[in-house]
Amino acid sequence: MISIQQIAYIIAIVDTGNFSRAAEQCFVTQPTLSMQIKKAEEQLGFSLFHRDSPKLELTAFGEALLPVLRQIQADFGAIERLREEFSGTFKERIRIGIIPTITAYMLQDCFAEWQALIPETQLSIEELKTEELIEALEKRSIDLAILAGPIASTSWRSVPLFNEEILAYAPGYDKPVITVDELSGLKPWLLSRGNCLRTQMMHFCALNEESAAAWNYAGGNMDMLMRMVDANGGYTLIPENCQAAFADAENRFKHITDSAGQSPGRSVIAVSAYRHANWDSMEKIIRSLQLKYASKTKKELELLSWK
Predict the structure, then answer these.
(1) CB-side exposure of 121: number of CA atoms within 13 Å?
(2) Mean pLDDT in each 10-residue stretch from start to end of the chain (307 residues)?
(3) In CATH, what is the architecture of 4-87?
(4) What is the pTM of this model?
C-alpha cells in the first residue's frame, strides 16, 4: 500500500497543478517526487495522472481516489493531534473561511465571543468568495466554511445556522417597503462577480448580465456600494444583519416584496468535513451563531440560491 508521504506528494501535485511546484512545497527534488508517484502508481495498479496532455489532470481512477487520500491525510493529522494532547504540547487551530457579505457583520459581532468560548484555540479566519470556499474545503486548507447555502454534497457536514432577509438600500425611496417592479426603475449597484449576493440580487430582481455595461461599476465592498447609491441614486442589496453596522442609515433600508408578497432571503450555513478532529470546538462556534442570529428573522422568506 502507498505511504502517507506518497499521499502527501499526490495531493501536493493536485493542489499546485505542477510537479515542480509540488516538489518545492514538499521540500524534495522533482526526480524524487516523480519516482515516488511512479512507485505509488505501480503499487495501486493504475495511473493517477494523464501525462500526454498539456494540462496536468487526474485520471478517472485518480479523481475517485483523491477524496479518500485527503481523508487519510486528515486522519493522520488526528493521530498527531492525539499524540500532542497526551504529551501536553497540543495547541488546537481552527481555520474558518467566511464569504465577504457575512464577514461584514459576523467578525465584529462574534470574534470576542468565539475567543471566550474556545480560549485555548488559535482561530485563523479568511474572507473568501463561495467558489473559493468550496475549493478550500476540498483541499482541506480550511476547517469550517460559513456561507450562503444550500450546498449539496455527501462529503461534507452542512449545518443550518440562520436565515436572513435581504433588504434594499434605497435612500431615494420614502416608503419602508419597495416592490420588485419599483426596483426595476432604479439603477442597481452590484457586488463583483463571485459574490453570491450579486447572483441572488440578479435572480430576484430579474437582472441580466447583458446589461452589465450600463451599470458602470461592480464593487466588492458593500459600504462603497452604499456610498455610490448616496452619490448617484439607485439601490443596492444588503443582508439584514448588516444594518447594525450602518445605524445612521437605518431608515434607508427597505423591505422588498415581489408580486406574490414574498421577501428575498438567504440561508446561512456552516460546512465542514464529516470527520474532523476539531468538531467539538467548531460546534461551539456554530451554536453561538444559531443563538445570536436564528431568532432575528420572523417573516416568511423566499430563500434564494447562491448559484
Answers:
(1) 23
(2) 89 87 87 90 91 83 90 81 73 88 92 91 91 86 91 81 93 90 87 84 75 63 89 91 76 88 92 81 94 79 83
(3) Orthogonal Bundle (1.10)
(4) 0.73
